[in-house]
Amino acid sequence: MKAKAVVFTNKLQVFVQIVDVQEPGSTDVVIDVEHSWISIGTESSYLRGERIAGEQAYREGVDPWPFPNIAGYQKVGIVRSVGSEVHHLQPGDRVFASTSHVSGMFFRHAGHISPAVTPANQVWKLPEGKPSLDYAGMVLTQVGYNCGSRPPVHTGDIAVVIGDGLVGQWAAQTLLHRGAEVIVLGRHDERLAYLPQDIRGINMRHPAIQEAWADDRHISIVVDSVGAMSTVSELRSRMKRESHWVSAGFLGESGLIDIQTLRNQEITLHTPSGWTKERMDRTLDGISEGWLQTSSLITHRFPVDQAAAAWQMIVENKPNCLGVILDW
């Protein structure tokens, strides 16, 4: 079987190609993709050759060079066909899908590919009456939800989210929904402007950052969505006893922690990674209910045949680049 895909052929090289896909099996679903959502942080890391697996850094001289590969892990589309053992879906259903099968690539799974031959356990039927595009980034939305749902929250707790990217945005939305008073520390005014009105955004490049804690209240929760260990260290003196630190950014081989420094304040460390069906279900519900806002964070859309242009924009680190969609 053949499919169109966005292929990272080598470091910083992106092409749209026709690739081989194994024939669908009895537990697979074939999906004609409408939109796929680029996960800027994770996929950029693969494009730069920094990872050999989801949480494993590439080691030069030890690991094989991880190209070519088809990055990504989230898309929406219409079911073309289902395997004989798939009973919860049928042709014509609008669905979200995570990673799909591919052949001849470094990884056997693919994100930006259509038609997408996908295991049924990585496919979710979408609710009627809601735009499919709202759900196109649902795995990444789940990462933010996961970060924001890990620590206990009492009404009025101060929660600080480090990072103004998509994971930071959705972690902040989740904490706000749960009753926290949320502050997001970022570096881009353009991105911080996308925060809901009830969330305070502070640009770390501005000297007025200390105004965020002018009342000297202590922080109950810190969510690091970007791997900013130095910022977490700076915030630690502001964290209350028995507070919570959620670490979600990719740290490669630099994520060393002195446990004793956490013990002094009895700080609990949470290390969310990946997704589960239960969390994906809750994320879908949050999007449907409206407290997880997704499509409002889409800043750029490209026809899939212009995927290389999309990646050129991302690599150049345009400050207003958040949600980037490929239209198929």
Automatic annotation (TrEMBL):
<dbReference type="InterPro" id="IPR013154">
    <property type="entry name" value="ADH-like_N"/>
</dbReference>
<feature type="domain" description="Alcohol dehydrogenase-like N-terminal">
    <location>
        <begin position="63"/>
        <end position="100"/>
    </location>
</feature>
<dbReference type="Pfam" id="PF08240">
    <property type="entry name" value="ADH_N"/>
</dbReference>
<comment type="similarity">
    <text>Belongs to the zinc-containing alcohol dehydrogenase family.</text>
</comment>
<dbReference type="InterPro" id="IPR036291">
    <property type="entry name" value="NAD(P)-bd_dom_sf"/>
</dbReference>
<keyword id="KW-0862">Zinc</keyword>
<keyword id="KW-0479">Metal-binding</keyword>
<protein>
    <recommendedName>
        <fullName>Alcohol dehydrogenase-like N-terminal domain-containing protein</fullName>
    </recommendedName>
</protein>
<keyword id="KW-0560">Oxidoreductase</keyword>
<dbReference type="InterPro" id="IPR011032">
    <property type="entry name" value="GroES-like_sf"/>
</dbReference>
